[in-house]
Design brief:
The protein folds into 2 domains: about 90 residues, Orthogonal Bundle (Arc Repressor Mutant, subunit A), CATH 1.10.10; about 190 residues, Vaccinia Virus protein VP39 (Rossmann fold), CATH 3.40.50.150. About 50% of the residues lie in helices and about 15% in strands. With about 350 residues, it is α/β, with parallel strands linked by helices. The strands form 2 sheets. The chain has a 7-stranded mixed β-sheet, with helices on both faces. Strands 1-2 form a two-stranded antiparallel ribbon. The chain starts with 6 loop residues before the first helix and ends with a strand. It contains 15 helices and 9 strands. It binds S-adenosylmethionine. S-adenosylmethionine binds next to α10.
Amino acid sequence: MPIEPNLFERLILLKLNKGPGLILDFLGAQAFRAVCVAVRLGVFETLSGAPLTAAQTAHQIKANERGTALLLEALEALGYIKKKNGRYVNTPLTAKWLLRNSPTSLACGIPFLESMVFDRWEHLEESIRRGKPALYGYDWADQQPDRWRIYEEGMIAVARMVADEVVAKVKLPPTGRLLLDVGGGHGLYSIRFCRRYPGLSATVFDLPQALEVTRETIAAEGMGDRVAVQEGDFWIDDLSAGYDVALVFNIVHANLPDKNTELLRKVAGALNRGGLIVIMEQITAKVSSSTARVLTRLQALNYFNNLEAQTYSFDDINGWLTKVGFTNQRALSLRKIPGFGLVLGTKAN
Ligand SMILES: C[S@@+](CC[C@H](N)C(=O)[O-])C[C@H]1O[C@@H](n2cnc3c(N)ncnc32)[C@H](O)[C@@H]1O
């Protein structure tokens, strides 16, 4: 949980400049690392039943007792677990977001976030010096097979946070039958749209390395008759045609503007006249939310480090869509994750 300084601490650290506010960022980095370690050790799963002492927890996670006790104290101070009569148990927020069997669980995404901050960002300084990624994200993923899984499971965690809101906000044309999910990864958005619209079928188009998790997700959700996968590289391969809706979710931040125009032109070619394009992104709008501002700026740095790209504004996306023949562009904000938003457009002809 984010560290929440009390009023006095805020005054000293953030308003009066009497102490270094930087300490909060330092503590935030340590806190996140402690949570990652706790997830890997299985601490939260262990504390999901009756409250346990540190010794009992250490025994169950097969770890050192003193180390475990210190980790539990840190997690308690951070608000991830509660302590009563010397025994620890998860808080309701931890049970909701971090337990693996919770429907809103983000646990599958923790290894991805951890690898981003503590592995990929080791190259950040060099990327900034060179002006391009020191190690491209997809080359990094190709180096070890399980990194593709970590990546797609990270995307599933994000999807679990926003999918319901996206499906509630995006009204598909009632006659829509076919949906193309461009770089759809795990396929969860396609699955949710198909559940909401019984007449709809979807194709998740993605690289072969990504689609293993997709096939598993589709099978686990029992949607194999409505959601198909298509292996391909959208820079090289044909996207086919005849679609009523195209999702382009978390894709444009990976490309420079000219490439986005090229990709969106290709997506337009796959859509029927009057077809709907839905883009989801972290959008660098002028927002009042400081969390959204920070998220979109830090993610811009992340995409630069990974893929030489960045986050974009609504005007940027709007401009590309107009150039390749879309009209009636509109933006919708998403509340579940600050900084995330949707841009919709209609294929003109
Ligand atoms: C950030 S993920 C987004 C996944 C999903 N759309 C979502 O929003 O959760 C980007 C996806 O684009 C896919 N991708 C990247 N380059 C691609 C290409 N050239 N052809 C097809 N898919 C690609 C990746 O494999 C990955 O699944």
